[in-house]
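Researcher: I've been going back and forth with a colleague about how Tubulin-specific chaperone cofactor E-like protein might be arranged in three dimensions. Neither of us has a model we trust, so I'd like an independent prediction. The organism is Drosophila lebanonensis, in case that matters for your notes. Sequence below.
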Amino acid sequence: MPSLLEALERKYFAECEFENANEPELHKRDDLPNDFTVTKCGGRMEFSIFIPRLSPLTSVPELLVLNDCDIDCAGDFDSIREKCQRVRELDLAQNKLKDWQEVFHMLRHMPRIEFLNLSKNQLMSPLSTLHEAPTVNLKNLVLNGTYLDWMCIDVLLQNLPVLQELHLSLNNYRAVLIDTAQEVELQQQKQADNESATASHSDCQIIHDGDTEVEEDSVSGCGECQAARKYTKAHPTLKTLHFTGNPIEQWQEICRLGRLFPALESLVLADCPIKSLKDEAEPSTMSNDSSTASTESHKYFPSLKLLNLSSAKMNSWADIDELAKYSQLQNLRVKHWPLWESLECTEHERRQLLIARLPNVAMLNGGGLISSDERIDAERAFIRYYMDKPENERPARYAELLAVHGRLDPLVNVNLKPDKRVKVVFTYNDVSESRFVDIYLTVNDLKAKLEKLINLPPNKMRLFYLDQDYKEFGPEEMRYPNKQLYSYNIQSGDEIIIDAKK
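Model: Here is an independent structure prediction for Tubulin-specific chaperone cofactor E-like protein. You can compare it with whatever you and your colleague have in mind.
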């Protein structure tokens, strides 16, 4: 398998070749420019011009893409430093890197690098504490599909002081096993407030079944997770975290990310099966991790501006009300929730209900900026939606908007659809009778129904339509058998005259 140096030389440092270099019988003429030569072809003279390929690069460009090249090591360090001195972005996704030391050797010899993509590399070797940071300039690190353990990620974070964006998607994380010392203090405070609770209920619940004792994991997580969790320092420089596609279900685990990255501005949690933004534990059985209760979880994200929760498993408007507590949240994506499938309303009405509940959100589900007119219309529609519902079904937001817009009159329900059935006068042999008729019937269908009424076969029947408002123009023969009745603009009170063919 090639090294990094061999892969980049193969891609960027090929020897300069000239086309037509092996053409036979090339002759130089003094009366032609230096770039021209003459080739003898029988009795003809052909002129050729040499167009050299680009000369070899002395160093690679700032963006170095070497994904899926089977790279497993760095190569000669001096050559890497010489040729990669301008590199700022390095893409090494889908290679064969296994040893972190090889990665660090690359970084140490690329002093200007700011972006590194290591997705889908099998970097499973344990990473101990680094004696020195491999680079102090790295701002964006992509580790999707690497399945790194949290201890390894913590070591990386501690040695990347200016890291601003981190990608940890598709790593099969079910829990966040690092947290800040802040949680320890909160646990101690909670334990002091609940001295009456027994210590056996802090981590697990013991159920007595006959002579057998069965331990159940508490809501906050099993004892193994508690034992494996490491407490570390926060990383105040990180502003963007991509966490897509990890099978994490509890919001209190996401709150640990908020404590780890207190300056977080963008958090992408698409395709994470999170069930609720509220703590599902009861106060009496709540474990030491109850510091992430729903009333406080928004405090761990004081700077969050963008949140993507698409394809979560949430099924309650209470979760939307929790999002309204995030004061800085401006851009929100909440597509493909089970909640939307259970609502009996149009997509436009659903958008209005969301906008009205989220006063701080300026961009919803990837659409344009929410204008002031759209927000006012949404808030008024929200009031009308809940005004006829029982008081116990009205959210707290209803009273807030009622104080702003006052009580509103219900909208008049105007139905502009044409009547499906109209009452028409049928006349045959000076006998008239009023009957309802479906305006979506064709002329042939109408004749078939009239056959039972007047005992006249359809092929012997002629129909004439007489508009009650334009009787002076006389009747119009309905001569087209597949024409539907509504196309004649038939209204109640109009007349259809039946005549037998002679």
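Researcher: What would you highlight for our discussion?
Model: I'd start with this: Confidence is low (pLDDT under 50) at residues 15-28, 197-220, 281-294. After that, consider the following. The chain has three domains: 17-53, 63-179+222-281+289-405, 421-500.
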